[in-house]
Write a structure and sequence with these properties.
- The protein is an all-alpha fold and about 170 residues long.
- It has helices at about 10-20, 30-45, 60, 65-75, 80-95, 100, 105-115, 120-165.
Length: about 170
C-alpha cells in the first residue's frame, strides 16, 4: 500500500519544504510523489508532541462496546479528535480506491497504528481496526444511499417532465 512504500528521501524533503511554505504540490503527481505524501502524513502523526491516543485508556477500549469507545473518544482533546477524524476520513478514502492502490483495512491498520500511540501498538491496532471498519461501512452505506436518492430524484424528474408534456398540446 501507499503507506508501506519507502519514498526517495530528497523528493520527500523537497515536498515537505513546499508544504511547509504553504505551496501546493504539482498536479502532475507521480507514484513517487504519492508515496512521499503518504510518508509525510505518517511523519506528521509520528512527530506530534503527544500521540493522538495518548490520553485514552486503551486497555479498557479493546473489547468495549461501540458506545463506550465513542464516549472515550469524546474525552480526547479537540485537536486529537479532529486529527483522528481527518485520518479516518483519509484512510476511508484510500480504502475506497482499493482496486487501484491494493489497500485493505488490515494493511492500513498495520502501517498507521504504530504512530498513533507508540508502545501500545496491539491495542491501537484493534481499536483502529474497529473504527476504520465502522467508518468504511458508514461510507459505503452513505454512497449507496446517495446513489439511491439520485435514482429516485431522476425518476421524480422524469415523472414531472412526463406530466408536463402530457398537459401540453403540441399541435
Amino acid at each position: 500500500g501507499i503507506f508501506h512504500q519507502k519514498p526517495e528521501t530528497m523528493l520527500c524533503f523537497a515536498i515537505r519544504q513546499q508544504i511547509n511554505r504553504q505551496h501546493s504540490i504539482s498536479a502532475k503527481s507521480t507514484k513517487e510523489t504519492l508515496y512521499c505524501v503518504a510518508h509525510l502524513i505518517k511523519a506528521f502523526f509520528a512527530e506530534l508532541p503527544q500521540p493522538i491516543f495518548g490520553s485514552l485508556p486503551l486497555a479498557s477500549l479493546v473489547l468495549a462496546e461501540p458506545e463506550q469507545v465513542n464516549n472515550a473518544f469524546q474525552a480526547l482533546s479537540t485537536q486529537s479528535m479532529s486529527l483522528f477524524v481527518w485520518l479516518l476520513d483519509l484512510l476511508t478514502d484510500v480504502i475506497d480506491k482499493s482496486e487501484h492502490n491494493k489497500a485493505t483495512i488490515s494493511s492500513l491498520v498495520e502501517q498507521i497504528a504504530p504512530i498513533l500511540h507508540p508502545g501500545q501498538q496491539d491495542k491501537v491496532k484493534q481499536i483502529l481496526q474497529q473504527q476504520l471498519t465502522y467508518s468504511v461501512t458508514i461510507t459505503a452505506i452513505s454512497h449507496r444511499s446517495h446513489s439511491l436518492n439520485q435514482i429516485a430524484n431522476l425518476a421524480r424528474l422524469k415523472q414531472r417532465v412526463g406530466n408536463f408534456l402530457a398537459s401540453r398540446s403540441f399541435g
